[in-house]
Amino acid sequence: MTTTANDITYRLEQKRRVQADFPGPKSIALTERRKAVVAAGVASTVPVFVADADGGIIHDVDGNSFIDLGSGIAVTSVGASDPAVVGAVKEAVEHFTHTCFMVTPYEGYVAVAEQLNRLTPGDHEKRTVLFNSGAEAVENAVKVARLATGRDAVVAFDHAYHGRTNLTMALTAKAMPYKTNFGPFAPEVYRMPMSYPYREENPAITGAEAAKRAITMIEKQIGGEQVAAIIIEPIQGEGGFIVPAEGFLPALAAWARDKGVVFIADEVQSGFCRTGEWFAVNHEGVVPDIITMAKGIAGGMPLSAITGRADLLDAVHPGGLGGTYGGNPVACAAALASIGSMEQYGLNARAKHIEELALGKLRELATDQPVVGDVRGRGAMLAIELVQAGSKEPNPELTKAVAAACLKEGVIILTCGTYGNVIRLLPPLVISDELLLDGLQVLAAAIKANA
Ligand code: PLZ
Question: Which atom of ligand 1 is nearest to the CA of 177?
Answer without folding.
Answer: 11
